[in-house]
Amino acid sequence: VIYIASFIYESLFVNSGENDTEPWLVADWKHEGFLTWEFTLKDNVTFHTGQEFTSYDVRHTLRVIEDSKSPFYYTDFLKDIEEFEIISRMRFKIKLKKPDAFFISKLVFPVLSQSAEFNNQDIVSGTGPFCFDGMDEKTIILKKNDNWWNEGLPYFDSVIFKIMPENEIIDAFQNNEIDITFVKNIDFSKLRYRTNIEYQVYPDNEFNLLYVNPKSLFGRENRQEAFFRYIAYRMHDMNLGEVQYFEQYGGGFINADEFRSELIKSGLHWNRDKKMFTEDGRSLSTLYVLVPEKDMQKLHTANFIVNILEEIGIPAAIRTDKPENVIRAIRNGNYDLSPVTQELKPWENLEDALKRMQDELGYGKEHSYILPLYRNQRAIIFKNYIRGEKKSSFWNPYYGFHTWYMPLFERGE
Q1: How far apart are alpha carbons 12 and 79 in whole angstroms?
Q2: How many Å apart are CA 169 and CA 379, to the nearest integer?
Q3: Does a structural domain hold residue 409?
Q4: Do 399 and 129 meet the contact criterion of CB atoms below 8 Å apart?
Q5: In a domain, 152, yes or no
Q6: For residue 112, which of 62, 37, 40, 154 has the smallest C-alpha distance?
Q7: Which residues have CB under 8 Å from 143's CB, separation 6+?
Q8: What does pTM read for this prediction?
Q9: What is the chain's percent helix, strand, coil content, to nearest 5?
Q10: Domain range spanning residue 254?
Q11: Same-domain pairing of 217 and 352
């Protein structure tokens, strides 16, 4: 839904790549120490109803977002705004409670019309290149906005979104029922041999991590560091296919023998005859990897962790439970290791997300017990007759859609 909305609504700034932001409805901006930000809006921008887009609409939108419970809005950044000041109809100023060098990357929400709400207009009205034209159970139809501020664009007269079960999408694409679609969990490399398509692979917003209990065997900093480096060395053995591995977060690579050496330095004893570790003369307790039941992706990761630990002499096993019980166990510290899936927020990089999760777990900031493992990937596929700028990312997979077109060929050419 949020992707469809991007054809109708526009934002002050847009995501133009994984970690890139560019101005959209903003003509100019400046800041004082990243604390006070002043923005100037573009002229001649109107909503589909004909009303002019002004600073009052930006203020109205922020108020709507603050009161909204919709999962499509991220409201955390609003807590950092101390004051919103309207300087003129085209200029406004935002004062933050603390400096934020990445503030503009958070201004990617769809701007709403204040006039439409005050006039009780129950319509879908944005400033974007397409207007809402109608919908039924299977289609959403958008038509060209002839008064769009970006003169001469878009090229398409209409765009139709088809609603269908995920398992029918590829067949519909193959049968030329649709021109563009998303795919995930396939071998994207096979697409490169197709001459009738173009595709863009990009990371999903979901990323997968390993939580380490600070009170477990790997709670000690030197052991945890060695463990992370060993996982980084073995990470590609997970054989997950089309994912983006985060081996760089392990802090360097060490092999099995080097991992054993680091564990010996940490106080464990290696019994060469029995090929097992002991501590204070006692065998190590089994290390349990806690996983939600029937979660195949996490079970796959847990099996990988168990195997690489047992290979170097540490007893390990998988323990499954209901998803809600796993969450409760992690919060209460009743686990040793647990693979977890989290979502990046629109303005977050991975480091910001790790800090956020660490704070949520109450682990503090002096040392991390969270290891990023990998990030899922997906692709958007186009029929090769769809031309124009394409630069997909999760937050903006249709980037450049206003420039897309289909060449018209004369018969016989």
Answers
A1: 19
A2: 13
A3: no
A4: no
A5: yes
A6: 62
A7: 130, 131, 133, 157, 158
A8: 0.80
A9: 30, 30, 40
A10: 204-377
A11: yes
